[in-house]
Amino acid sequence: MQTILVTGASGFVGSRFVRRWGGAYNILAPSHGELDITDAASVERYFADNRPHVVLHLAAISNTWQCEQNPADSYRVNVSGVKNLARAAALCGARFVFFSSDQVYNGNLEYGLLREDMPLSPCSVYARHKLEAEQVAADESPQSVILRATWMYDAPIEGLPVHANFVENFRRMLSDGTPLTFPVREYRGITWVGEVIEVLPRTFTLPAGVYNFGASNTLNTYETACCYFEMLETSLKCDAMIIPDAERFPDHERNISMSNDKIVQASNGDIFFNTTLDGLRIFLEKQKAGYR
Ligand SMILES: NC(=O)c1ccc[n+]([C@@H]2O[C@H](COP(=O)([O-])OP(=O)(O)OC[C@H]3O[C@@H](n4cnc5c(N)ncnc54)[C@H](OP(=O)(O)O)[C@@H]3O)[C@@H](O)[C@H]2O)c1
């Protein structure tokens, strides 16, 4: 049985990975207290003691606002932490699989679905650090698999953490009746985390490189929200509850929506994501069928 070291195992993605794949792999899931990724010496010791075959690196400061407020902390965790782990993984011959983000495209001016080989000029602390971490991972551990994830969602599940996310925002809107506002000048993929978790082990054998990793979406975020609202089949009126925000992103439309052609080809079709709208539809069907 392969040994997988999962960092960030108490987080949104990590906790779901451990729950889904716990029986199929020997999973090491040290807490932040047990393995602080910013402490190079303890990372080295941990690898010498445990010798994982794969490192699924999910630990991060994932809150973009927090990174903007504390860039030094963001750098320590989101760049230096990646360096420590990628280096230790290479030394012990482990495959390094690391979550980057679609935010690395947030300075791009192109329209349409974005590809991995496009030049990038990210315009936030989190995105700049993720991009630098991609380079650091590839330098330290040339066999790294780097996954640019989209914004992910899930319903609350007992015992698992959930952040503010697209479907959660709607659940709150339905319970407290407060309308939601969505940007018109933004394009992004939004992915059910269940789809991500299901295909993650298949990334462990991909050729080294950077891959877009999540649903594509050609609608703007406001249109996406209106479509999801209709899927919910409530008695409320969409135009009263879903408010367009045409002011946000005044300089240029923000497009971070990704093509996933590269990962589909590299995996011979084994790794595939539904579009954002199809994913939302499937998620709702699963909810109705009692998925928890
Ligand atoms: N969630 C999304 O929608 C999304 C979208 C795009 C990319 N991503 C990326 O995907 C990855 C997983 O995201 P997530 O949503 O699961 O993150 P999350 O819920 O915020 O979890 C982050 C995890 O990292 C741990 N951690 C933070 N600092 C650490 C340190 N110094 N040493 C060890 N562990 C540390 C946290 O432990 P404590 O809580 O105990 O500190 C927590 O388990 C991240 O790289 C994130 O940037 C996420």
Structure characterization notes:
- The protein has 292 residues and is α/β, with parallel strands linked by helices.
- It has a domain at 3-153 and 190-217 and 256-274: 3-Layer(aba) Sandwich (Rossmann fold).
- 40% of the residues lie in helices and 16% in strands.
- It contains eleven helices and twelve strands.
- The strands form four sheets. Strands 2-1-3-4-5-10 form a six-stranded parallel β-sheet, with helices on both faces. It has a two-stranded parallel sheet with strand order 6-9. A two-stranded parallel sheet has the order 7-11.
- β1, α1 and β2 form a beta-alpha-beta unit.
- α2 runs parallel beside α4 (71-91), α4 (71-91) runs parallel beside α5 and α8 runs parallel beside α11 (276-288).
- It is globular.
- The two termini are 28 Å apart.
- The model has no long low-confidence stretch (mean pLDDT 97).
- It binds NADP nicotinamide-adenine-dinucleotide phosphate.
Concise structural overview:
The protein is an alpha/beta fold and 292 residues long. The protein has eleven helices and twelve strands.
Tell me about the largest β-sheet.
6 strands, parallel
DSSP E strands, number: 12
CATH fold call of the domain at 3-153 and 190-217 and 256-274: Rossmann fold
Low-confidence blocks of residues: none
Helix content: 25-40%
CATH homologous superfamily placement of the domain at 3-153 and 190-217 and 256-274:
NAD(P)-binding Rossmann-like Domain
Tell me what the CATH architecture of the domain at 3-153 and 190-217 and 256-274 is: 3-Layer(aba) Sandwich
Order of helices and strands: EHEHEHHEHEEHEEEHEHHEEHH
Strand line-up of the largest beta sheet = 2-1-3-4-5-10
